[in-house]
Write a structure and sequence with these properties.
mainly beta, 46% strand, globular
Length: 89
């Protein structure tokens, strides 16, 4: 393999994180991304799983419609903490 060749690894399909709170639920958006919805179906933001050397991290993100890019709200060790950041933000 040459120095310029990039190795692309397949994405891992993680199981949907289980939330303690029943105020929100997760709807899969891609392999490592879920929409966070409240009981009325309103989208609060997104939850993304990111591999870390110490374990899985959960990123709370919001989609910025004007640019089509995700903006980081915070990164957490527990999915409920990430969802709470979206709820309160």
């Amino acid at each position: 393999m040459s120095d310029t060749q990039i190795l692309h690894l397949p994405e891992v399909r993680y199981a949907t994180p289980q939330l303690v709170s029943k105020r929100e639920h997760l709807v899969r958006a891609s392999e490592q991304l879920w929409r966070v919805q409240d009981t009325a179906g309103r989208i609060l933001g997104h939850l993304r799983i990111v591999a870390d050397p110490l374990g899985l991290r959960y990123r709370a993100e919001r989609l910025h419609l004007a640019t089509g890019a995700f903006r980081l709200v915070g990164e957490f060790w527990r999915p409920d903490d990430a969802v709470q950041a979206l709820r309160n933000g």
